[in-house]
TrEMBL record, chains A, B:
Residue intervals of the HTH arsR-type domain: 1-91
NCBIfam families given in the database record: HTH_metalloreg
CDD domains: HTH_ARSR
Name listed for the protein in its UniProt record: ArsR/SmtB family transcription factor
Keywords: DNA-binding, Transcription, Transcription regulation
Organism of origin: Prauserella salsuginis
DNA sequence: CCTATCCGTAAGTATACGCTTACCGTTCGT
DNA sequence: ACGAACGGTAAGCGTATACTTACGGATAGG
């Protein structure tokens, strides 16, 4: 999270927007189709798509009256790279902590990782 | 975003929490130290740390009156894996779209990826 | 031209959320 | 025992946000 004020990270902080991205990961979809798959109104989907588009995570094309949305791979790749950078940095920091803790008493709570799924 | 209702993804949707994680990626820190580095009050930091802890992204140990927080590598790794899975899936979907579009007329808007940093 | 479909956007609303100050329990040093 | 430092939590507050309905422009078919 180097760019911790990043629009894209803000964007995926919302569960409905993550759901939209999950739908689009499978295939491109029109707004109405997305709305059919989600428990929110179509205008809500439009608003979310606008956020995602502004964050560079999705792109659109028009087909008649329809707007077809798809993921923007570059945007998703950027997220991935940022998380990777962060992860590498965290590993370095973690090793440092482990070394420090080899030489002193500690009182540790909540050591167990909490699984996300 | 397979687990799109995931607490951890919700958690990092907030810029202050991302900032906290960035600080902790460098080294473990006490609450007060974190508060010194961020433009929010110490109780605000506590509240954010609680969210991060419940999401499995940080862990704590006590040292006297101090609570020292650090990143939880397992939690961060889980995010990374989920994003990786999502990315692979998106790539598959993207290839499918590219194939579909080779055989039909399209009208594309906003094709350019928007850089995050 | 008329009608239907699609979808962006405006406006409104409820509420979640991120912030603050205040309080109080815990720990430690004197 | 007392005071200082630390930090969790309660309570309050302002506002951003995610939702809704309504409106209207664009497109396409008859």
């Amino acid at each position: 999270m180097e760019a911790y004020e990043s629009e894209a990270w803000d964007a995926i902080g919302d569960p409905t927007r993550r759901a939209i991205m999950t739908c689009l990961a499978g295939q491109e979809l029109a707004v109405g189709e997305l709305a059919d798959e989600l428990p929110v109104s179509r205008p809500a989907v439009s608003q979310h798509l606008k956020v995602l588009k502004n964050a560079g995570l999705v792109a659109e094309r028009t087909a008649g009256t329809r707007r077809i949305y798809r993921l923007n791979p570059a945007g998703v790749a950027a997220l991935r790279e940022q998380l990777e950078t962060f992860w590498n940095r965290a590993l370095t920091g973690y090793r440092k902590v482990a070394e420090d803790r080899n030489s002193r008493t500690r009182n540790t709570t909540d050591e167990q990782p909490k699984e996300e799924e």
